[in-house]
Amino acid sequence: xxxxxxxxxxxxxxSRGGLTLRAWICIxxxxxxxxxxxxxxxxxxxxxxxxxxxxxxxxxxxVYRFVDARGVVHxxxxxxxRRYELVHRRPRHSRNARRPRPNVPIHYxxxxxxxxxxxxxxxxxxxxxxxIAAESNFSPSAVxxxxxxxxxxxxxxxxxxxxxxxxxxARENVSGGxxxxxxxxxxxxxxxxxxxxxxxxxxxxxxxxxxxxYPETKAYVKRVLAYYRGYRGDFHR
Length: 237
Known about the structure:
The chain is mainly alpha-helical. It folds into two domains: 4-89, no CATH class; 111-235, Lysozyme (Orthogonal Bundle), CATH 1.10.530.10. 51% of the residues lie in helices and 6% in strands. It is built from ten helices and three strands; from the N terminus they run αααβββααααααα. It has helices spanning 4-15, 21-32, 36-52, 111-120, 125-136, 156-161, 170-188, 191-200, 202-208, 215-231; strands at residues 62-67, 73-76, 85-89. A three-stranded antiparallel β-sheet has the order 2-1-3.
């Protein structure tokens, strides 16, 4: 049984909004010692809080209860009696659990390669991965209707200028694509325009002095930026 001081302190905690585990255990235990319908009502309310209210316990977020032979309801977060039954468990979140992220293609097979080439070209790995996802959806054999090839969809003339002999070879393609992305970033100093140039070519960006009014390019820039945000967690574990 809790003392009057503990019970009063628990009431003060509850009045601030959000019962702690100790607070509702105080309420339930005190209520169970009362008589008649008033006790039943308070016990029912305590049980309802047990199931629905956030349980703020540092060591154990599970809540157990049992009813003894006299009809007294007992609650505990650390039961020592086999008669206790689990009535609520607050989900635990691991520090290493992945955070929810936007709807992005899930693929980890090229992460080591991406990290290596991104570091070599002073790029964020999440950005390189976002471009790969938007360009080829991680398919090293992808070929676009315009003839772009491989993971980062290099046009044949662009690949040749970058010294990429086999654009369908993952390492060569990502190496060349990362260098080309770095060139566009250095040229424009702006991520959105650099991505537009990667997609539509730098001549189009120069002509319109910004992102060209092509629906495909606009959608591409938006998609890569969304993927970029979504992939950041893949490289900060």
